[in-house]
Design goal:
By secondary structure, chain A is of the alpha/beta class. Among the domains of chain A are: 250-349 and 434-533, Rossmann fold; 362-432, no CATH class. Chain A has 18 helices and 22 strands. Classes of the chains: A alpha/beta, B mainly alpha.
């Protein structure tokens, strides 16, 4: 917990509608939430802030009955509750609208709004009353949508608003909006905010999750910041400068890795005139990232910094051939290239290690050995299998070099801890002997020891001439390892600087700075007093 | 001894093997001479030999199906492909002046297999290039294929006389039915192709996590082409054996429902329909269970009209024994028994 005192309750609503106290949830190998407290007041918009892995979605899932809590209490409207299913949470007045609209596109708007609580007449659904009720709900939101039309016929934005209409029809006391704006344009966001404000006036408590800081500052009354499964603090939005918020989200890690930084500095100073390995000019992808220029030299570690959704991962995916570019040119060692697939990138000896370890990284039912040799084998083709003996040598050497536990090449990867799975993935990419290794959040969700080992590895790889792109939400890590830092914000590159002059604070300022925001000037004495030790 | 038993029990093959044993025991109780094998004219005869020979077509189809299922797919068109290959072979034999000539038979077989290759490429195209869901993509050929076979046979049941062709179905070589050799050969080819090369691991990787496989540089498209083509060729081989059994090409009824038996064999063998890890040995046991089941129905004297119900009951039991939920329940039951017996419980 934090020694930070909570801001006062809003006027006229002294009792929170939701009060979660001391919530802890563990998953195998990781503590997802550690004694986190969180409360929501009626008629307030409350934003839950934090980077990936901070515990936002775990907390939401604890509140909505998806996950069972290990310890702590949830009090809803003065009564302690314990939900075992989302249906129970919904009946208690907690409604959730997810990022991906999870309604039924082949049913009508009215059917979607009334699903599960259709008005009945002689046992059959009373379509006329259903539509009338749906029309009322829609009118209440100021939405001009025909209740009889198919949901799928409407734009994503309208579907999102209809999802909210459905949530309201359930008499929600608490409405959870999880990244509701990520697929909306400016006008649609304005429309959504209008509706959020009218719900607020009606006394609904709204939990608004978004990684767009501008939107958070526009709509939220109160903020709760989480980091690494712990509560950082609860704040009233007007009292918290944007740069302070970002700093609280990203945090400063207490570190024993200063010698690494020293090594990075030294390698920098004795580098002569480095050869360019990869040169990207104006590469972009519609809807993902605006055109950027990136140059990566041999033996250089380039850090990509920025918030979630800033474009840091999107650029990395373009460089790794995971997503195709719409525009721009990519040159690998004087050779003009279009990377159409990861396979092609690998043939240029560019390897990309995804931030989504589970869904895009490990093949969880296969063994450690198979996972390690996967990319190398794919490169050799079907009919030139790596001889069994060589497979064992490879697996054993990486198990030892990276300290993979258990040290068993036949272990099924699914049963390994997150950190060890990450090491297996690293081994897979190292096995193809890449010239450029792109590591997207390689240290997320893994324990501190494994983190340090992975960082040490990055430094020694670069010393041996490999180029590395290093992405992490932890700025300390980026600064410690990188020779150069590319800063992304709002899907654009906003800075490309040699590491010499950078500090966590100046980097924070670059990341947080809003275009129309005077708060963004770095505060010379950031208020760190309330940081947890 | 207990360690061996524990390892056996943990194996995915455990329950299918138990099932097979139970069925065989039922048979031997009903007919004491069930296991007896006699030698006539130098050839082996007996119920066990019948199970092997009659189970060969299902096994061959199931081997192809195993690889398709491992990629998260399914191939419903195998029955239709089998019917087409039988129809093609028979019409070639009928159209030739000398259907008894081994060369003619060889031509008929090769042409039938080549056509199945094309059909497999068609399935692969629909799934890998157009991205149609496998169940729908292969449903197209499942329905259309019977029609194609009808066109080839011109709506007739073609009967042929050709001793070399007949040998495929009912011939013997060194005392063992030729169909058994063919099944063994297909099994060996599949095992060698997938386990001696990197193909098997890649098929599993694509079945378990397609996106991770793509990012590792695996070309899923080629793999899908390969497995659907292999499945179609397996189906054609099975179709030729079935046709040679009856020496007649029946477009409507040849290899009817063989896709269901093949899928069952795969599932009984412990390969998940969700794709991923597959076991050819499991499929072998699965196909034997299914064929033994059919034989058991006759030996025990269950009326043929009840066959389907009986089969369904056995399949239900096997699937229940393999389901994780049942396994957990069984495990906790065993634990409670052990506690009651006052013994220490070895942790899993």
């Amino acid at each position: 917990m934090t020694d930070h005192t909570r801001p006062p309750a809003p006027d006229g609503a002294p009792e929170p509608v939701v009060e979660m106290t001391g919530i802890s949830i563990s998953f195998p190998g990781v503590k997802a939430l550690d004694t986190v407290s969180f409360r929501m007041f009626p008629g307030e918009v409350h934003s839950l802030m934090g980077e990936n892995g901070a515990g936002k979605s775990t907390l939401i899932k604890a509140l909505t009955g998806v996950y069972q809590i290990d310890s702590g209490t949830i009090v809803l409207g003065g009564e302690e509750v314990s939900f075992h299913s989302t249906a129970q949470a919904q009946d208690a007045g907690i409604s959730t609208v997810y990022q991906e609209v999870n309604l039924l596109p082949n049913l009508s708007v009215a059917e979607n709004i009334m699903l599960g609580r259709e008005p009945r007449r002689f046992g059959a659904i009373d379509t006329r009353r259903m539509r009338a009720r749906a029309r009322e709900v829609l009118a209440g939101l100021g939405l001009d949508v025909d209740p009889g039309s198919l949901l799928g016929a409407h734009s994503l934005a309208i579907q999102q608003l209809i999802a909210i209409a459905r949530a309201i029809n359930i008499d929600a006391r608490v409405l959870i909006l999880d990244e509701p704006t990520s697929s909306l344009d400016a006008d649609e966001v304005a429309e959504l905010f209008r509706i959020i404000r009218s719900l607020k006036e009606a006394g609904v408590a709204i939990l608004f999750v978004s990684h767009f800081l501008d939107q958070v500052y526009e709509i939220a009354d109160r903020l709760t910041v989480l980091r690494n499964g712990r509560l950082v603090g609860e704040y009233l939005t007007p009292d918290l400068l944007r740069i302070d918020l970002v700093q609280k989200m990203i945090g400063k890690e207490i570190t024993t890795l200063d010698d690494l930084e020293q090594r990075v500095r030294e390698s920098e100073s004795d580098a002569g005139d480095p050869t360019v390995f990869l040169k990207a000019r104006g590469i972009g992808r519609r809807g993902a990232v605006n055109p950027v220029d990136v140059t990566i030299h041999e033996g250089e570690v380039v850090g990509f910094a920025g918030l979630l959704g800033s474009g840091r991962t999107e650029v990395a995916r373009l460089l790794g051939g995971i997503d195709r570019v719409d525009s721009g040119t990519l040159t690998v060692r004087d050779d003009g290239t279009r990377l159409r697939s990861p396979r092609q990138a690998l043939s240029h000896r560019i390897a990309y290690s995804s931030e989504n370890r589970r869904s895009e990284g490990i093949v969880d039912e296969l063994t450690v050995r198979d996972n390690i040799i996967l990319a190398l084998q794919a490169d050799r083709g079907w009919f030139r299998p790596i001889p069994k003996k060589r497979q064992d040598e490879l697996a054993q050497s990486y198990i030892q070099a990276l300290g993979i536990r258990p040290a068993d090449a036949d272990a099924v990867v699914r049963n390994l801890s997150g950190g060890n799975q990450q090491k297996v993935l690293l081994a897979r990419w190292l096995a193809v002997a890449p010239r450029l290794l792109i590591l997207d959040e390689p240290t997320r969700g893994i324990d501190i020891g494994a983190k340090a080992e992975i960082q040490k590895l990055v430094v020694s790889l670069a010393e041996n001439g490999m180029s590395v792109v290093y992405i992490s939400a932890e700025l300390e890590e980026v600064l410690r390892l990188s020779h150069r830092v590319v800063v992304m914000r709002d899907r654009r590159k906003v800075a490309d600087l040699a590491n010499d002059d950078l500090t966590v604070d100046s980097l924070l300022a670059l990341i947080a700075e809003g275009s129309d925001d005077a708060d963004a000037v770095p505060d010379p004495t950031p208020a760190t007093a309330e940081e947890p030790a | 001894m207990t360690a061996l038993l524990a390892r056996l029990a943990a194996s995915r093959l455990f329950w299918p093997l138990v099932m097979l044993a139970v069925l065989l025991i039922i048979d031997v109780i009903a007919v004491p001479g069930f296991f007896s094998i006699t030698v006539r004219d130098g050839n082996l005869y007996g119920s066990l030999i019948d199970i092997l020979r009659n189970g060969a077509p299902t096994l061959i189809v199931a081997i192809g199906m195993t690889l398709v299922i491992a990629t998260r797919g399914i191939d419903l068109s195998v029955g239709a492909v089998a019917a087409i290959s039988g129809a093609v072979a028979c019409s070639i034999l009928l159209g030739s002046p000398d259907p008894g000539n081994p060369a003619t038979v060889a031509v008929a077989i090769v042409v039938a297999l080549l056509i199945s290759l094309v059909l497999g490429v068609w399935n692969g195209f629909l799934v890998a290039v157009l991205g149609i869901q496998p169940i729908i993509a292969t449903l197209i050929l499942m329905t259309a294929g019977r029609g194609v076979a009808m066109l080839i046979t011109e709506g007739q049941i073609l009967t042929v006389t050709s001793p070399p062709f007949k040998a495929l179905g009912s011939g013997f070589w060194f005392g063992i039915p030729i169909a058994v050799y063919i099944a063994a050969a297909v099994f060996a080819v599949a095992a060698t192709l997938t386990r001696r090369t990197a193909l098997g691991m890649m098929i599993e990787a694509v079945g378990i996590n397609p996106e991770a496989s793509r990012q590792a540089g695996i070309r899923a498209r080629g793999l899908l082409f390969a497995v659907y083509t292999f499945s179609a060729v397996c189906a054609a081989v099975a179709g030729l054996i079935l046709t040679a059994n009856t020496m007649a090409a029946d477009a409507n009824n040849a290899a009817l429902f063989i896709e269901l038996d093949a899928i069952l064999a795969v599932v009984i063998g412990g390969t998940s329909l969700a794709g991923g890890r597959y076991s050819l040995a499991g499929t072998l046991v699965g196909a034997l269970v299914i064929q033994t089941l059919v034989t058991t129905v006759y030996t025990v004297g269950i009326p043929p009209i009840a066959t389907m119900v009986f089969k369904a009951a056995v399949v239900t039991v096997v699937c229940l024994l393999q389901s994780p939920t049942t396994n957990q329940a069984l495990a906790s039951f065993r634990r409670s028994l052990a506690v009651r017996a006052g013994k220490g419980v070895a942790s899993a």
